[in-house]
Amino acid sequence: MKKNFLGFTLAEVLVAVVIGIISVAAAFSAYNYYSKSYDAVTQKSAVNSSARDALILITKDLRNAGYIDPNFLSASCENITTELDAKKKIN
After folding, report:
1. Which of 66, 62, 43 is nearest to 54 (CA)?
2. Distance (Å, whole) CA 57 – CA 48
3. What angle do CA 53, 56, 61 make, to 5 degrees?
4. Which of 50, 70, 71, 84 places its Cα 20 to 30 Å from the Cα of 34?
5. Has residue 5 been placed in a domain?
6. Which residue range(s) make up the domain with 59?
7. Distance CA 56, CA 1 (A)
8. Handedness of CA 25, 30, 35, 37 (dihedral sign)
9. What pLDDT is recorded for position 3?
């Protein structure tokens, strides 16, 4: 006498649950790995950006190192007024 039961056996359900748990664990592991990788790349990118900005400023300063503005007053001592000189002129 053959009986036709509809449904899954306990062994089939256990195998499906184990496969599901392994799949979820693999997905979380991959997410954790890629999250750490993204953080490392973001940090390196920030360092590179800061270094690039610093080099741009240094390059700008070096290019202007010997430059004297033609409208700049001469740097002789005659044009320099100290605080004491200003007080003497006021009094």
Report:
1. 62
2. 14
3. 130
4. 50
5. no
6. 10-90
7. 88
8. positive
9. 72
For the chain, what is the total number of helices (H) and then of strands (E)? 2, 0
pLDDT tens-digit readout, 33-66: 999 999 999 999 999 999 999 999 999 888 887 6
Of 71, 72, 90, nearest to 81 by C-alpha is 90
d(Cα 1, Cα 85) in Å, to the nearest integer? 122
Number of domains in the chain: 1
CA 75 to chain centre: 44
Which band of pLDDT confidence, cut at 50, 70 and 90, is reported for residue 12? Answer: very high
* Mean pLDDT of the region 65-81: 61
Are the CB atoms for 79 and 73 separated by under 8 Å?
yes
**Cα 30 → chain centroid:** 23
